[in-house]
Amino acid sequence: MPTGSFFTHPYSHPGAVRCAVAIVGGGTAGCATALALARRNVADVVVLEAKTALPAFRIGETMPPTSGLVLRRLGFFKAFQAQGHVESVGSCASWGKPELGYNDFLFDPHGCGWHLDRPAFENLLLETVAGRGINLLGGHHLRSIEPLANGGYGLGFDTGNGVTHSLEADFLVDATGIAAGAVRRLGVVRNPIDSLIVVFAVVELDAADAIPSQGFLEGAEWGWWYAARLPGGKMTVALATDLPTLSAQGFRDAVAWRSALRHTLHIAELVERGRPRWSGRQPDTAVAESAILSRVVGSRWLAVGDAASSYDPITAQGLYKALSDGEAAGEAIAEFFDSGGGTAALWAYQDALFGRFTDYLRLWEYLYSREQRWSQAGFWRDRPLRKRFGS
Ligand SMILES: Cc1cc2nc3c(=O)[nH]c(=O)nc-3n(C[C@H](O)[C@H](O)[C@H](O)COP(=O)(O)OP(=O)(O)OC[C@H]3O[C@@H](n4cnc5c(N)ncnc54)[C@H](O)[C@@H]3O)c2cc1C
Q1: Residue 139 included in any domain
Q2: What distance in angstroms lies between residue 208's CA and the mean position of ligand 1's atoms?
Q3: Across the chain, what does the average pLDDT equal?
Q4: Closest C-alpha to 159, from 139, 179, 177, 188
Q5: What pLDDT is stored for residue 387 in this prediction?
Q6: Which residue has the higher pLDDT, 252 or 56?
């Protein structure tokens, strides 16, 4: 089960040991990097993850059709298909105007996208990593990094109850998500572009079949709403806003949040169609940052996934990026070893990642500039980049 303690693969050592590659962070990007390294026969790779078990739910479920290509190349697409994620035929948005517009995957050569059972997906990634014989250590929270005189890094992990574990690595991968917890310790700067607070609830539906398989998006005065049907007769309903709006409107409170939901033109009616059973709990929150590191590679290290660059969830590209950057990272590290320490592939990885971030910023600017209905409201007034940075 996805919520169970998965990290069963044995890798225990009494003291410090050396490995070829230490991947800190066992999320999508860390696992994809490990699988790409295994494909290139790079031995002695260790994935070290702070968590000991996966949570029952994690927000971030929409995966675009192109992701299927990476899953195929990394060798677990069939197992993924067997998991029963909701196949999504596209998205539907009230953006810049009250009417809904449709963006269908009908003509996408890669087929449908998906609304994931996210913990099940992450569990499959971890299982696949362990199944390829890669060492996987749960309950390992990175606490210290020390560059070693003979190259590589000495890493210190907190494993709970005051116990620590040390490990030396020839090469270090930071896959710790927006924390960028490894490379920040090396002094690398993470540059924030924007930050959203997403206030969300997962609701059980009595009539899940009444909800179409598209993702729904709607601009509103306080931010934008998002709703998607999930596997298991559930639905995620989310408001992406910013901290000042959240505080001023009190959206951490279920009453205020649901009142704002009721004022939407489409999302409220859509959710009602599924006959939701509201739990009465307060909504949850998650921070969604747009940010990039000043460098994503360095001397025997590399950052991948959200640790390297993170996107606004409106693009729904984070998972695809984690998978495809993970694949590219694994290839670049394999080239580094194969070439006896040549860094050309690492620099090419960085150039490509920076190029994609520039493309992302253009897309971000374009998307937010197309919603002008509340341009004087705080959330929307602050969004366009040109206003934030005067460019
Ligand atoms: C509200 C919200 C909605 C989103 N919606 C979507 C969506 O619909 N579609 C989409 O594609 N993307 C979405 N995303 C983005 C997506 O979730 C991320 O891009 C993706 O999770 C990045 O994967 P990752 O492996 O880089 O990081 P993560 O998934 O964050 O994994 C990092 C791992 O590192 C571990 N870790 C952290 N610190 C340490 C440490 N010190 N030591 C050891 N381990 C550590 C963590 O426990 C975690 O398991 C959304 C994000 C948010 C916040």
Answers
A1: yes
A2: 27
A3: 93
A4: 139
A5: 59
A6: 252
Question: Do 197 and 287 meet the contact criterion of CB atoms below 8 Å apart?
Answer: yes
Residue reference for tokens 């035929």: 89
**How many CB atoms are located within 10 Å of the residue 109 CB?**
7
> Which one, of 308, 291, 58, lies nearest residue 182 by Cα?
308
Q: What is the pLDDT of residue 15?
A: 54
Note whether 92 and 227 are within 8 A (CB): no
Nearest alpha-carbon partner for 142 in 24, 241, 280? 24
> Residues, the chain, total?
391
Domain end (from 287, 319, 350)? 287
Is residue 351 in some structural domain? yes
Counting atoms of ligand 1 from 1, which one is nearest the CA of 25?
Answer: 34
What's the distance, Cα to Cα, between the start and end of the chain in Å? 49
Whether the CB-CB separation of 115 and 61 falls below 8 Å is answered with: yes
For residue 128, CA distances in Å to 29, 38, 60, 332, 362 come to: 13, 11, 21, 21, 35
Q: Is residue 81 part of a domain?
A: yes
The answer to whether residue 3 sits within a structural domain is: no
* Same domain, residue pair 182 and 37: yes
On whether both 221 and 258 belong to a single domain, the answer is yes
Sheet holding 86-88, edge to edge: 62-63, 113-115, 86-88
The stretch 271-300 carries a mean pLDDT of 96
Q: Which structural domain, as residue segments, surrounds residue 224?
A: 196-287
Nearest CA to ligand 1 atom 22: 306
- pTM of this structure: 0.95
| Of the residues 253, 287, 321, the one at which a domain ends | 287
Nearest-atom number in ligand 1 for the CA of 200 is 1
Lowest mean pLDDT among 11-15, 255-259, 287-291: 11-15
Residues with CB under 6 A from ligand 1: 24-30, 48-51, 59-63, 140-142, 175-177, 179, 181, 198, 286, 288, 305-307, 313, 316-320, 322
- Report the CATH number that the domain containing residue 252 is assigned in CATH: 3.30.70
**pLDDT tens digits for range 127-174:** 999 999 999 999 999 999 999 998 999 999 999 878 888 999 999 999
